[in-house]
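Form 7-S
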Amino acid sequence: MKIKLITIAILSALIFSGCDKNLDVLPTDNISSENLYLSEAGIEAGLAGIYSRILFAYRGADFAFSYPSSFTDEAHYCRKGLTSFIKNNFTPSTPQLAEPWTELYSGINAANIYLEKVAAAGFLSEEDRLEYLADGYFIRAYMYLDLERAFGGIEGIPMPLVENRGELLPRTPGIDVYKQIIKDFEFAAENLPDDADAVKGRPGKNAAKGLIARAYMYLAGEPFNEPGAYEKMRDWSKAVIDDGYNELNPSYKDIFIRLAQEEFERKEVLFQFAFSYENQNNQRASKLGSAMGYLCEDEACYKSYESHYATVSLVLQYRSDPDDERGLWNTDPTYIRRTYNCRPIGKVSQFRYCPSKYRRQYEEDPSNTSWGAHHWPILRYSDILLMYAEAENQLNPGSTIALDAVNQVRNRAKATPLAGPITEDLIQEERRLELCFEGLRKYDLVRWGNLEEKVNETKALMEELVADPNFYNDDWLIYGEPNMGPDGLPQTGDEPAVLETRRNVLHTSFEHFEGYNDFDITKHYILPIPEQEVGVNPYLRQTQGW
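Output:
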């Protein structure tokens, strides 16, 4: 079977020029869902329309990446004056809250239309029909997964399916939402092509299997604690491992360089969302590389702004193992200063290290704008290994099998291997070190039941270190401009005999504590339903606590 190549970047040339949100087709073509799905090309256009809604929901990076990282033990937003769900100072009426909800439900509506029409498309062979349906069920399940973990919890979310699309619906309980998500992904896992045969921008079987493991991961923890979920989480992640196709990229940083260069490397990255900056059209681009990336102040080089800081606890954890290559890649101690010929220099304070996992200098056209074509990682093989390790350890505490899976991840990063026995705490910390800034941390802390604990620990450590007169920036001894010698490079042998030291301090122009101070565990473990949705749907109840 050969279904035509549909990369999101190519399709977005069609989709982002303007869509009817009900049908997800170009209004200028005067096409309705009734005559769109009369050919295979129309089916592909319909599928592209579904993806367009996700890209609109994600493109600003606030919902998918900033929110799950900010004011956890991973990172925090640092700008003053913003009212946002990123900062724990928002209400259900905050306008920004409605954007991802609206776009994702628009995508779900488009997916339901697509599934209905593909099922009835008599011109398709049965093999083609099943694969197209698998594509639709996969992406619908992903949108529901994103909505449920952010807005749903025990109370769940409205869940329109093919048979009741267009109706005003109450919330489907969270446990039943996950059952439907798993059912959709299982259909996809059965009928998608093998990953080696899947076309760029489209999922393969292992992507679906891995996301089933992720769904069971959320069911296994708080607030569901579903019996048998850890067994399913282990079995589905092991199914990906046993398939033998996927593997770790030998170079950690190469994963993210390839994403910046718009490459599809499916061995490690099982699934990714692709953006495009062709002809500098920011309607098809994203802000991932600038909002959550390496800081560059000089727009003559490229633009990446200072909106988040990695937590000092994460920075210090990385520095405790100098061999761990993830530390300098994810929390780089340097930045590019304005009018400095695009040359990196050291940051004065470890309180002010920006997340640096995503680096715009590797984009084809980083130009002087915040928008770029940086692809987004959705599911990586290291996550598969860590889900497997977590589930295995829950079922068999201290498991050597779990230890081996974690050490596979650490060995790739050149980190010091764990000697064992493996523990729940070690696995949780490894997820932070490996998967930071990938849109997972807050959801992890919620399911482990330690979100409040980690928020308080992170804030307390900052307060303690701010008051410590002996808390110096050890990175400055290597990367500080005065310590690099005449050649401006670190550790080349021309450094001064006496090195300059710098104490770590906060910068009064930026915010460090506001979101931690405003945190309220009775409500900030979940997002409220946008007020406008509650207002127009008489069957929809607001989340308890909001």
